[in-house]
């Protein structure tokens, strides 16, 4: 299974159905692509960027959030840019001598631990988030990929936010 296949499966588990290339929902695509900037900010922080750089990048995110798209998307250039992002990302792994396929397996595996697996995990997740003040929640889907969301605006959990399960674990990367 390719990395793309793994990410497709992960998105389907999150309830993100495969789109129709004849009727692209550009609002959903724009929202998804905003996450690329969030990850770019996280990458720069990890690379050691100073606070001024990070604040500037956060400002760019704010500008994009204000929905200032005033022209139709260019499908060919969107596809090219998304592939270029992958090319440079995989290139960075290459320059570090790190196997990107193994890292993707670790990351996707970690993301999949965010789901509620069973009744025990559900009870522990409810209790853990209640201790943090998040008590109004709803559940979607079925085990082992049940989703827990905030049902209203709460501390650190705006309405609709996906809430990690108590069994969540960060990715574990192979030792270099």
Task: Give a short synopsis of this structure.
With 176 residues, the chain is mainly alpha-helical. It contains six helices and three strands; from the N terminus they run ααααααβββ. Helices cover 54% and strands 6% of the residues.
Structural features, described:
54% of the residues lie in helices and 6% in strands. It is mainly alpha-helical. A 3-stranded antiparallel β-sheet has the order 1-2-3, with no helix packed on it. The longest helix has 22 residues, at 75-96. The radius of gyration is 18 Å and the shape is globular. The two termini are 24 Å apart.
Tags for this model:
6 helices, 54% helix, 3 strands
Provide the fold topology.
Layout: H1 3-13, H2 26-46, H3 51-65, H4 75-96, H5 100-112, H6 119-131, E1 137-140, E2 147-150, E3 162-163
Antiparallel strand pairs: 1-2, 2-3
Structural class: mainly alpha
Count of DSSP strands: 3
Q: What is the overall silhouette?
A: globular
Q: Quaternary status of these chains? A: single chain
Uncertain spans: none
* Helix count, DSSP H or I runs of 4 or more residues: 6
- Listing every helix as H and every strand as E from the N terminus to the C terminus, the arrangement reads HHHHHHEEE
Average residue pLDDT? 93
Distance separating the two termini: 24 Å
Strand content is 5-15%
**Rg, Cα atoms, Å:** 18 Å
- Roughly how much helix do the residues carry, as a percent range? 40-55%
Task: Strand order, main sheet: write it out.
Answer: 1-2-3
Describe the main β-sheet briefly: 3 strands, antiparallel
């Amino acid at each position: 299974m390719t990395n793309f296949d793994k990410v497709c499966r992960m998105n389907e588990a999150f309830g993100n159905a495969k789109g129709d290339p004849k009727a692209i929902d550009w609002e959903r695509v724009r929202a998804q692509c905003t996450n690329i900037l969030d990850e770019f900010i996280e990458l720069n922080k990890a690379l050691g960027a100073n606070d001024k750089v990070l604040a500037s990048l956060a400002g760019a995110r704010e500008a994009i959030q204000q929905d200032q798209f005033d022209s139709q998307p260019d499908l060919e250039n969107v596809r090219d840019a998304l592939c270029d992002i992958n090319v440079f990302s995989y290139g960075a792994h290459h320059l570090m001598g790190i196997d990107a396929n193994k890292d993707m397996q670790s990351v996707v595996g970690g993301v999949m631990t965010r789901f509620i697996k069973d009744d025990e995990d559900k009870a522990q997740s409810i209790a853990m988030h209640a201790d943090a003040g998040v008590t109004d929640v709803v559940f979607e889907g079925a085990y082992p990929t049940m989703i827990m969301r905030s049902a209203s605006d709460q501390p650190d959990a705006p309405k609709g936010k996906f809430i990690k399960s108590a069994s969540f674990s960060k990715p574990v990367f192979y030792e270099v």
